[in-house]
Write a structure and sequence with these properties.
Helices cover 39% and strands 12% of the residues. It is α/β, with parallel strands linked by helices. 44% of the residues are buried.
Length: 344
């Protein structure tokens, strides 16, 4: 539907709309309805936002820490005619962002985790080894880059980051090779880092590129993606109305494990322990809708191979008050970015 047409479908705002992974399933689980208010915490190329606005006469607050994504969404804002607000911020602040736009409670929150195709396809952002560009990887515009981490992190910290966040079994060898290489010349480009990793990690034909897990680990660490996710889940709990839906699409096991563990902890209804009768368990704040994660069907996989690793989980907010803090044990034990930059 073009920008000049009538009704809720008038939200395209560009000539080549992005098709989101599991888009139909996300819409179904969000229960998008007229008059509703929804938060797209990871606006990116606007695929989920566009679908939500097209599905009903509703309002969306879109959030992205990438100022480029917000700028590219200007056409969608105009086409939505007052139904879309875009904010440059981190999705961990989504409840505060909602309040700043005059919304105290929302009917749905959708989070699409990880790096966007738009970021991967931009060489100067340094997210991918498919192009040789600066070793940046920052989703926002401030803070240390991946090149800074590679230059300053101690070998032990590098190995732990690559092992825990990249699930790379050759992490010690990769860290050792990085430290050795940086003593000779700074590692400033994606191509340089991929070459170093490729000398340590070997792959067979049709397997993922040897540097894939190391790049994933550095990106997650630089952007504190897992810490942001935990904070965003708690923020969604605070801002959702009773009956409101939380829908999360993840692309690797670390993210999915956190979402699953959070929803289990927040939906448990176990009684008081006979060993500690004075400890009263708070009422569950969510009801899990997806007992198992939703995955893409063959038709979507044929159109979009990226959907192969996608897992969708959803839950409905109960009437219980939000809990303070977040569950323990959701995050891997790693040094902070600030500590790494100090060489701790």
């Amino acid at each position: 539907m073009t920008a000049g047409s009538d009704g809720p479908m008038d939200v395209a705002g560009d000539s080549a709309p992005h098709i989101p992974v599991l888009g139909a399933e996300v819409l179904d689980l969000l229960k998008v309805a007229d008059g509703g208010v929804y938060i797209d915490g990871t606006f990116g190329a606007g695929g989920y936002t566009r679908a939500i606005l097209a599905a009903a006469d509703c309002r969306v607050v879109g959030i992205d820490r990438d100022q480029t994504a917000i700028a590219r969404g200007a056409g969608m804002v105009d086409a939505a005619r007052g139904r879309l607000t875009l904010i440059e911020d981190q999705f961990s602040n989504l409840d505060a962002v909602a309040r700043e736009t005059g919304v105290d409670a929302v009917d749905g929150v959708v989070l699409d985790l990880g790096v966007s195709s738009m970021q991967l396809d931009t060489p100067e952002r340094g997210f991918s080894f498919r192009f040789d560009g600066p070793l940046d990887m920052r989703m926002g515009s401030d803070g240390p880059s991946a090149a800074d981490v590679v230059a300053h992190a101690e070998e032990r910290d590098l190995a732990n980051i690559i092992f825990l966040l990249g699930e790379e079994r050759h992490s010690r060898g990769v860290a050792r090779a990085i430290v050795r290489a940086r003593t000779e010349t700074p590692i400033l480009t994606t191509g340089a880092l991929a070459h170093i990793v490729g000398r340590v990690v070997r792959s067979k034909p049709n397997e993922i590129h040897p540097a894939t897990r190391t790049f994933q680990a550095l990106r997650i660490f630089v952007n504190d993606e897992l810490g942001e996710l935990v904070a965003a889940l708690a923020a969604a709990e605070r801002v959702l109305k009773p009956g409101g839906r939380l829908v999360v699409v993840s692309f690797h096991s670390l993210e999915d494990r956190i979402v699953k563990s959070f929803l289990i902890e927040r939906s448990e209804t176990r009684g008081v322990s006979r060993h500690a009768p004075e400890l009263i368990r708070p009422d569950p704040t969510f009801r899990v809708i997806t007992k198992k994660p939703v995955t893409a069907g063959e038709a979507e996989l044929s159109r979009n191979p990226r959907a192969r690793s996608a897992k969708l989980r959803a839950a409905e907010r109960t009437e219980a008050p939000p809990r303070a803090g977040t569950p323990d044990g959701l995050l891997p034990r790693l040094p902070s970015l600030a500590d790494v930059m100090k060489g701790r």
